């Protein structure tokens, strides 16, 4: 009998010991917050082993625990707390399960002075788009991080990681500033701990963590600070439509309704036009919007209030923590319309001077205009999205500078006709304009094409003087070329000189070719002239239909104006200036590009594919 009692005693002691152990907490998201935010409610997501049966208490007297939400999965708890009266402090979140108690310290920080007034990007800016893995490698030691799934770097493989990082970009801020752009847009920098293809960043596995192969969260904050010190803004790429399949929120779902089709893979049709199509079936809409990009990119359900809140808080967290100046939202029309509208409103309520641009990859200006804030075409719906991407103009520009221009079609007439339809837009100045980006063929498809530098010069002159917010893709200034037909990896080639041992360093003008230096100097002159130019940033636009292949337009603000003439012919062209008199207050002008004096008395002659800017 003594042996039996001893065994029972040992079992009871072991059971008591186990029950007294604290729960294992894997994630607290967000890990901290701030007092004094305009929206006083905070969602805290707790992820740990079997925590849903816990009673929850908080130690603060001026913070109210409003709601504790359990999910289907017992490993999650969602806490909603009220910070209306909260001061900066550290308090404890206590989880009690019988005799087991877990204490989670949580910090409410003091906001930086003026944080709510963060300045967004606008039409006075020019964005420089960088894919961090492909620009420059500042810290080779972080190329491989133990424990991360993609455990190789191979610069000969366009689909593999190459080792670029935040420090690499930071090391070349002088180059970027000297070029003359005013903002850096980074392709996603958040953790992408995927088996393969993680270099591009569009399959996020932790929304609150910078990918360790790029650096730490603190490294990113330092990068933003140093970029600001150079007078440059930072735009952060975000993806709320989907995440990576290695994200803990998918691998161990809080509940099946965090993802569309209950977490089961169903392919999207990519037909996001169904969002604005009056004739679309409900089935077609659901398949397009709720379908997944790929099997490894689970589609998030923004109709779930907890998902919407999680994503919204995440973007606000990065703005407040790192001090970024803008967000580019990937695949914007693929997500729930109302959910994304709520997100835009929430961000701009906290930061009235901030800007968001949505990727709106649609085939016409009418379809894109539907997505801009206060669009009459979408009424009574409202996306509250300030800026949309002008993909149709990209297409027109990529054709216009190759074709001959007539008085009725082709070439520069494409640009005239397209801009004459801007009546569909609520705010044409809040359109992101670009010749190419990381998803499209580069402006030059091959190195052989770069022999035609007139094409480049006309395109850059137009892009940087027409309405909208221009974006330039890294390497354009040195004539990097690529065709999407050769795969996305070719579009995202390494910047020459970003890695130790590169045979050519194009950050150094002495190592660039004569043609590369000509292109760089031309773009630099335009960008430096545009910087701080209120006529281009805020001026009205007036244009005249192409005449003898020549397209002309004026930007005007107050009594100041800028006039541009483009010759869309492969031959010299002379035009009578009578139709342009209201745009030409002077009889002479100085060309910004060459410094030459231009006579504007009766007739103007432009050389083949020539540009005048005065």
From TrEMBL:
Keywords: Glycosidase, Hydrolase, Signal. SUPFAM superfamilies: (Trans)glycosidases (SSF51445), E set domains (SSF81296), Glycosyl hydrolase domain (SSF51011). The keyword Transferase does not apply. Pfam families: Alpha-amylase, Cyc-maltodext_C, Cyc-maltodext_N. One of its GO terms (molecular function) is hydrolase activity, acting on glycosyl bonds. Gene3D superfamilies: Glycosidases, Golgi alpha-mannosidase II, Immunoglobulins. Residues 129-530 form the Glycosyl hydrolase family 13 catalytic domain. InterPro entries: Cyc-maltodext_N (IPR015171), Cyclo-malto-dextrinase_C (IPR019492), GH (IPR017853), GH13_cat_dom (IPR006047), Glyco_hydro_b (IPR013780), Ig-like_fold (IPR013783), Ig_E-set (IPR014756). GO terms for biological process: carbohydrate metabolic process. Residues 1-22 form the signal peptide. CDD domains: AmyAc_bac_CMD_like_3 (cd11340). This is Glycosidase. It comes from Bacteroides reticulotermitis. The lineage of its organism: Bacteria, Pseudomonadati, Bacteroidota, Bacteroidia, Bacteroidales.
């Amino acid at each position: 009998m003594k042996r039996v009692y001893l065994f029972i005693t040992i079992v009871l002691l072991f059971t008591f010991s186990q029950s007294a152990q604290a729960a294992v907490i894997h994630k607290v998201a967000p890990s901290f917050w701030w007092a004094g935010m305009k929206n006083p409610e905070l969602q805290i997501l707790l992820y740990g082993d079997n925590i849903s049966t816990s009673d929850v208490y908080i130690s603060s007297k001026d913070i109210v625990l409003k709601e504790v939400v359990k999910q289907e999965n017992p490993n999650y708890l969602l806490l909603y707390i009220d910070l209306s009266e909260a001061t900066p402090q550290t308090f404890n979140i206590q989880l009690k399960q019988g005799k087991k108690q877990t204490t989670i310290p949580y910090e409410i920080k003091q906001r930086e002075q003026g944080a709510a007034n963060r300045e967004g990007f606008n039409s006075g800016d020019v964005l420089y788009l960088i894919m961090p893995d492909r620009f420059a490698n500042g810290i080779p030691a972080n190329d491989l991080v133990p424990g991360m799934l993609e455990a190789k770097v191979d610069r000969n493989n366009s689909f593999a990681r190459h080792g670029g990082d935040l420090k690499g970009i930071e090391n070349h801020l002088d180059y970027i500033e000297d070029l003359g752009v005013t903002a850096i847009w980074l392709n996603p920098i958040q953790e992408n701990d995927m088996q393969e293809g993680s270099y591009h960043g569009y399959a996020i596995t932790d929304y609150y963590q910078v990918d360790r192969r790029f650096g730490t969260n603190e490294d990113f904050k330092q990068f933003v600070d140093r970029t600001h010190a150079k007078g440059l803004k930072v735009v952060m790429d975000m993806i709320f439509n989907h995440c990576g399949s290695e994200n803990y929120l998918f691998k161990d779902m809080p509940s099946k309704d965090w993802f569309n089709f209950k977490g089961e893979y169903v392919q999207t049709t990519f037909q996001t036009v169904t969002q604005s199509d009056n004739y679309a079936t409900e089935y077609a809409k659901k398949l397009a919007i709720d379908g997944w990009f790929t099997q490894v990119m689970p589609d998030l359900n923004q109709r779930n209030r907890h998902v919407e809140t999680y994503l919204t808080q995440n973007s606000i967290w990065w703005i407040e923590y790192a001090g970024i100046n803008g967000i580019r939202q990937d695949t914007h029309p693929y997500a729930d319309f109302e959910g994304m509208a709520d997100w835009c409103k929430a961000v701009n309520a906290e930061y009235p001077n901030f800007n968001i641009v949505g990727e709106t990859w649609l085939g016409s200006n009418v379809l894109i205009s539907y997505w801009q804030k206060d669009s009459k075409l979408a009424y009574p719906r409202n996306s509250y999205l300030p800026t949309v991407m002008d993909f149709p103009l990209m297409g027109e520009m990529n054709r216009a500078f190759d074709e001959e221009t007539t008085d009725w079609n082709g070439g520069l007439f494409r640009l005239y006709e397209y801009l004459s339809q801007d009546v569909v837009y609520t705010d044409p100045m809040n359109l992101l304009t670009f010749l190419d980006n990381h998803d499209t063929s580069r402006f030059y498809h091959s190195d052989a094409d770069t022999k035609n530098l007139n094409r480049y010069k006309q395109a850059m002159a137009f892009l940087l003087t027409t309405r909208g917010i221009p974006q330039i893709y890294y390497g354009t200034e040195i004539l990097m070329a690529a065709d999407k037909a050769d795969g996305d990896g070719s579009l995202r080639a390494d910047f020459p000189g970003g890695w130790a041992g590169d045979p050519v360093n194009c950050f150094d003008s002495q190592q660039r070719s004569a043609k590369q230096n000509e292109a760089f100097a031309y773009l630099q002159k335009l960008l430096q002239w545009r910087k701080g130019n209120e006529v281009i940033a805020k001026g009205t636009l007036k244009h005249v239909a192409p005449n003898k292949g020549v397209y002309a337009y004026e930007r005007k603000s107050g009594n100041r104006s800028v006039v541009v003439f483009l010759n869309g012919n492969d031959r010299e062209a002379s035009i009578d200036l009578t139709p342009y008199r209201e745009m030409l207050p002077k009889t002479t002008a100085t060309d910004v590009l060459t410094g030459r004096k231009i006579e504007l008395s009766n007739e103007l002659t432009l050389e083949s594919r020539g540009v005048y800017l005065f």
